[in-house]
Amino acid sequence: MPDNARVVAYAATLEDGHRRDLTGILEALGVDVTGASSAGTSSYDVLTLEVVLPAAAAPVRAALAAWTSTTGIGAAYVPAAVYGPGPKLLIMDVDSTLIKQEVIELLAAHAGREAEVAAVTEAAMRGELDFAQSLHHRVRALEGLPATVIEEVVARIELSDGAERLVEAYLGAGHRVGVVSGGFSQVLAPLADRLRLSFAKANDLEVVGGILTGRVAGAVVDRREKERTLRAEAEHAGIPIAATVAVGDGANDLDMLAAAGLGVAFNAKPAVRAVADAALDLPDLDVVRHLAGV
């Protein structure tokens, strides 16, 4: 049975030739291209094609992946449930996604152990280490630091380009936006308040007598907990899981990217790019709202 969907292409610059090439590829697969629109800012261009599929989406996804590999231009197949009418939910990772930095590395710099912690973080994000074990290992490097370093780190955080526009667009349209992080609630809370996020979940750094103990209080927010949070928040708000978008960059985001209606790998590790529905390599999160039709 025919299926309505969208194909969205995105790059720093798109030309008329790219539109013709992509349309030709789709039509060769028997896909009916029924409309097109363009959008963008000074940092990116977006082309959205309205399409009707005669059969399964798998050949279209494969053709888009091949075209991206050849041209370097991002392209994603977006099911109608993601961009259609009704309430939506956007859930994002924080470190190296919503923000430009890795918070634990900023904290570790105060202990003179940033390089050591960064190496463990990188291996964990590639999926080479168990996330919970790697987190406990890295947090131990913070033992003995005064809790005041948290405020210093909060002051240094930079939002990723386009992050504020993306959040404002979702919230302004009446949708929900939240974050779930393998980082720390003490750092995340001020950011969540600033952006007026619908929800925020992260790990708690244990503090005793104003000093970091080098331990995490409670269970670790790992990849399974990230997926569970996505499903729970969608159910709580009465939003179909098919109408959700998840964005992340590391191996601990894989489960929530797979569960969401559209999983977006943002400047991500190869293992994440390989399985995500869309790989966004532009340094601008705002592109995500075009994928979701917001």
TrEMBL record:
<dbReference type="InterPro" id="IPR004469">
    <property type="entry name" value="PSP"/>
</dbReference>
<dbReference type="GO" id="GO:0006564">
    <property type="term" value="P:L-serine biosynthetic process"/>
</dbReference>
<keyword id="KW-0479">Metal-binding</keyword>
<dbReference type="GO" id="GO:0036424">
    <property type="term" value="F:L-phosphoserine phosphatase activity"/>
</dbReference>
<dbReference type="InterPro" id="IPR023214">
    <property type="entry name" value="HAD_sf"/>
</dbReference>
<dbReference type="GO" id="GO:0005737">
    <property type="term" value="C:cytoplasm"/>
</dbReference>
<dbReference type="InterPro" id="IPR036412">
    <property type="entry name" value="HAD-like_sf"/>
</dbReference>
<keyword id="KW-0460">Magnesium</keyword>
<protein>
    <recommendedName>
        <fullName>phosphoserine phosphatase</fullName>
        <ecNumber>3.1.3.3</ecNumber>
    </recommendedName>
</protein>
<keyword id="KW-0378">Hydrolase</keyword>
<comment type="pathway">
    <text>Amino-acid biosynthesis; L-serine biosynthesis; L-serine from 3-phospho-D-glycerate: step 3/3.</text>
</comment>
<dbReference type="InterPro" id="IPR050582">
    <property type="entry name" value="HAD-like_SerB"/>
</dbReference>
<dbReference type="Pfam" id="PF12710">
    <property type="entry name" value="HAD"/>
</dbReference>
<comment type="similarity">
    <text>Belongs to the HAD-like hydrolase superfamily. SerB family.</text>
</comment>
<feature type="active site" description="Nucleophile">
    <location>
        <position position="93"/>
    </location>
</feature>
<keyword id="KW-0718">Serine biosynthesis</keyword>
<dbReference type="GO" id="GO:0000287">
    <property type="term" value="F:magnesium ion binding"/>
</dbReference>
<feature type="active site" description="Proton donor">
    <location>
        <position position="95"/>
    </location>
</feature>
<keyword id="KW-0028">Amino-acid biosynthesis</keyword>
